[in-house]
Amino acid sequence: MTVLLASLFIMGLYCYLWFEIIQKNQDVAALLGEVEKLTVERESLTSTKEQIAETAPLRDKLARYFIPKDGVVSFLNGIQALGAENHLGFKVGSVAIEDEASAPDVFENVKLNLEIEGEWSDLYRFATLAELLPLRVFADQVGLEIIPEEKNSDSSKKKAPPTAPKWRGHLTLRVLKLKN
């Protein structure tokens, strides 16, 4: 009878140890799964950080094609300076900010209505330089007209040498701006 009790005790102990080993194996498998998951996440984050570092110069270059979110005033000052450098009478008729239809969450349009006066070559140079700014500029409307000279009926006055005719231009420019 003691042999039977001893055998039952050893068999019970063997079953207990067998269940404990199975439980420990399951715990180890779960921990290994977590370790693998964390390793994959870590590698993904490292890869993302490397891509961010590698693309930083390209993203900076791309951002320069748009007016920064707080750069409208400096942009307007630059446009006015461009008009002054080209010897133009310059007036900003209106400035409006509208959402960009293709990406309203990211971009806005700064819409400028400009009135400029000067010689033909100066107006042409200004319009060309405005389109060639290192920004995404659209010339939505360009209108140019010659300003008629005023005739002086007094023939006794000396005739002034002919001067280049003056021109008046109306430009509507649209420039992409980063929203946020």
Write the SSE topology.
Blueprint: H1 2-63, H2 72-85, E1 89-99, E2 107-119, H3 120-131, E3 137-146, E4 166-178
Antiparallel strand pairs: 1-2, 2-4, 3-4
What would you say this structure looks like, in words?
This protein is an alpha+beta fold. Among the domains are: 28 residues; 91 residues, Ribosomal protein S6/Translation elongation factor EF1B (Alpha-Beta Plaits). It contains three helices and four strands. Strands 1-2-4-3 form a four-stranded antiparallel sheet, covered by helices on one side. The mean pLDDT is 88.
What coarse outline follows from CA principal-axis ratios? rod-shaped
Q: Helix-strand pattern, N to C?
A: HHEEHEE
Q: Report the oligomer.
A: single chain
Helix coverage percent of residues? 40-55%
CATH topology of the domain at 72-148 and 165-178: Alpha-Beta Plaits
* Rg (C-alpha, Å): 38 Å
Largest sheet: 4 strands, antiparallel
Mean pLDDT: 88
If classified by CATH, what would the architecture of the domain at 72-148 and 165-178 be? 2-Layer Sandwich
Task: Tell me the span between the first and last alpha carbons.
Answer: 86 Å
Roughly what fraction of the amino acids lie in strands? 25-35%
Give the low-pLDDT segments: none
SSE-based structural type:
alpha+beta
Largest beta sheet: strand ordering: 1-2-4-3
CATH superfamily grouping of the domain at 72-148 and 165-178 = Ribosomal protein S6/Translation elongation factor EF1B
CATH class bucket of the domain at 72-148 and 165-178 = Alpha Beta
The number of E-state strands comes to 4
